[in-house]
Amino acid sequence: MSSAHILAEARRLSQLMLETADLSKDLFAEIAHEVAVPVPIARALCLLENSASMTELAGMLACDKSYITPLADQMETLGLVQRVSGPDRRTKLLQLTDAGNTKREQIGDKVTQVNPIILALNPDERATFEAMLVRILATSPQIQTDKPKR
Amino acid sequence: MSSAHILAEARRLSQLMLETADLSKDLFAEIAHEVAVPVPIARALCLLENSASMTELAGMLACDKSYITPLADQMETLGLVQRVSGPDRRTKLLQLTDAGNTKREQIGDKVTQVNPIILALNPDERATFEAMLVRILATSPQIQTDKPKR
DNA sequence: TATTGTTATACTCTATAACTATA
DNA sequence: TATAGTTATAGAGTATAACAATA
Question: Rounded distance, CA B93 to CA B81, Å?
Fold first, then answer.
């Protein structure tokens, strides 16, 4: 296989991955809209199965702590979470309310229903696909972020 | 296979897809930084192999026309493209300069070199993977965007 | 009247830096 | 001194609406 061939293949694969990525994001955004919450809140809801501290949520969302404060404020205003006191008197745990849990489940169900991977591939293929994704993620070069997101 | 099983699988696959999507975006952002252009300009460069009108570029980037004007301004300032007159006297074609072409090729090469799919999978696996991505994209439900992006 | 590009403006998402309270 | 959360502010990316020139 020529190196020109590999280059063309790499371009195609990159393009396809980015399109699939956009598709995933668009579908998720549509779902967030259907359940009437902003996308960042929908993302947080999905990660908040068990209660988590604000710093932990920042870690899961891969964002800065300072972003969590207004996010949690909004979620509290919408009645989706409560700030409850943690082990420390510094730490605040975000805990889903019943409404938050309901919303979370709605999102999960919809994500399943429109999941293009489930729709496009049969179970055996999905297992193969999943294993490949895991390997791709594991192989990823170090990303030296210029924005440390601390 | 139970429906609970499918739900869990869908969640895992969604999560993996989103992680892979973020990985792709992060890698591309790193490359854009290495060649010293903002990410949106790097994206535009990749799409501008042949010259395109501003409206066509908006279509390829899936964004509004109004976004292209300042983008093209920046690219002209950086000496990467030129606005040349098109068939119409309304239409302006964006044409890569030599510097723009060089930058474009640099980006293409780097994308190939750090492509985690190339690094993680052998040629046969990549063919399988690519076919699966194509099917996933083809199967995607209609996305009824609330933001018409016209 | 429809289309191309432009302008002015505003919105969403997210970061940085400096701060407070607690440890 | 280090950590959890907060505040104020700023920046990137992108949209909407109204507009001018051309078709």
Answer: 10
